[in-house]
Amino acid sequence: MEITANIVEVYEILRSEHRNPHHILGMHEVEVDGKKAVAVRAFIPQAASIEVIDDKNPKRTYTMKKIYNDGFFEAVLLDRKKVFRYRLNIEDYLGNKWSTYDPYSFNPYISDFDKYLFGQGTHYKIYEKLGAHPITIDGVDGVLFAVWAPNAKRVSVIGDFNGWDGRRHPMRCLDNSGIWELFIPGVMERDIYKYEIKTREDYILEKSDPYGNFMEVRPNSASIVYDINKYQWKDTEWMQKRQQTNPLNQPLSIYEVHLGSWMRVPEEGNRYLTYREAAHKLVAYVKEMGYTHIELLPVTEHPFDGSWGYQVTGYYAPTSRFGTPEDFMYFVDYCHQNNIGVILDWVPAHFPKDAYGLIRFDGTALYEHADPKQGEHPDWGTLIFNYGRIEVKLFLIANAVFWFEKYHIDGLRVDAVASMLYLDYGKTDGNWIPNQFGGRENLEAVEFFKHLNSIVYQKFPGIMMIAEESTAWPNVSRPTDIGGLGFGLKWNMGWMNDFLRYIKKDPIHRKYHHNDLTFGLIYAFTENFILVLSHDEVVHGKGSMINKMPGDYWQKFANLRVAYGFMYGHPGKKLLFMGGEFAQFSEWSEARSLDWHLLEFEKHRGMQEYIKDLNHLYLKESAFWEYDFSGEGFEWINASDANSSMVSFIRKGKNPKDTLIFVCNFTPVPHFQHRIGVPAKGKYKEIFNSDHSKYGGSNVLNEGIISADHREWDGREYSIGLKVPPLGMTVLKRVDE
Can you tell me which residues form the catalytic site (predicted)? Predict the structure, then answer.
């Protein structure tokens, strides 16, 4: 049977194994009997007949001949010598007809420079090339698909638009880059798709798009074509201000939120709030409560609700549970317009084993390590990224850039940093592989963090990179040029563990554990710390914050108020998980809404009012936050009164007039004639008291002005006498004469 194409290539097409189908399919200049002509070839198994239509002169048509019954067609156009733009009119065996431009008539779109930067690991906007992008090429609308799968025998795009048939749209592999690309005319936004990958062992895999911008609602797992560049942002003022602001010397009071369980809609089947609904309800609440930022547990796409988002299958896609990518942009935009920052929980430490995800993506361990001793978390049942592979490192660094660039995010809280830094994390002896020097440090992950942080801080001044790091690894929040990992901030897990251990004890025993209360100041300025009482502390049998507190009903609330008060006075930025602000009794569950009905009760309303007033005081008084990371902003007055379980200390701002004095009493015994040393003579006034009756306290307050006596106390020349409430905190400030 005569055919102008190479017969070996034809059989590669028929077997769906051709790595460059454009070389044979589409329109090509050929020679027939020594004369120039044009040949058009198509492989469409469902087609009964195909016609070639000249796009400029639709009356010029050419009938294609079926060369192989599998669906391989060719037309040799003896009257044409040059390639031209054309369409294919197709009819299948059921009489269905359609017209399309030929995907195999378009030149490569991804440039040599793109491939070079990708191979170097410096194409920080590679997400604009890989993935699915609605574009127009030579006046033809369609979608450009591109995916990295270097070890695949063949990669195809499959979807509703081709009956999920991997033979229909095989992609071309671009040289040695491992990138496969195909422009498919006529595919539109909201079309669903996956990549069908034929491995070297001839297994067929169906994978969602690692760079896809939108995904189906679980349990479905296909990617969805979506144009994320259409949204009109209205947060210019916020973004300009952010560029000129150093968050380290600003107030930072973070409300940590799981979007699926903050509030539900019970009258509509207990459904989730959408991104747009949450924008209005959550922002109004956060503004009233005085928080500066919302930190969202992961909203990247994930299959299992019970993972809280920490097992990610769509790193470039906000979860479709709550709406579209544009809806999430609206959420961030609305926060910014209301002067609220947005921090995302980000999970570069591991990924799940769902078959449609990154696991053995092209039939080989591509994103993960091949050896389970390196590539698997035994405790979590997840896979560890291979931070030594350039393209994998770029996938993650570009992902961070993506959220800052495309979604205007203000910070990333990087989850499980310790699990990345230590090769033996969660592993028993003999089940991990040491580094080249025989140590347990993951040198490739260290280099990844330095690279990541240097790039995002360079590109986005004013953002925050926050490490959830639970060990004593040095210089986590120090610049890379002095040997640090380059993060801006670090969660203070040591303080959290010590403080919760202390506050859970019966007050009668606290004097024996006073060091748990004060030890944090030994290392408070070694990192840029955020003090956290996060979601991790109110799950898995640990009890809610209010239920950690000892004592009777009144004492539980008083204990919690003084706990929060001490936390706000202590150096470091602040984070509190949702529900803790109104003393929810039940543990947090992702499966239901917070217990908002508790606000019908006075004690819970009082706690909510307390956090609201504490936040607003925090915002107003710069001594709370101007010198969070420097010893010049803190001074003990008395740290050693273990018998009374009391501490007193000073917080200082840039202006000496802003100095605040904190006194905290961790027993239910009130003190009506307590004396403390003060930094200077003059008059002092109580500006905040956790024991106020409006918060549910007993009203042991300091009313009026307190004059300092020239009487040495606590090693200071001047001192004052004051009332200290039971299980309470008082804050004093010097007032003008």
Answer: 415, 468
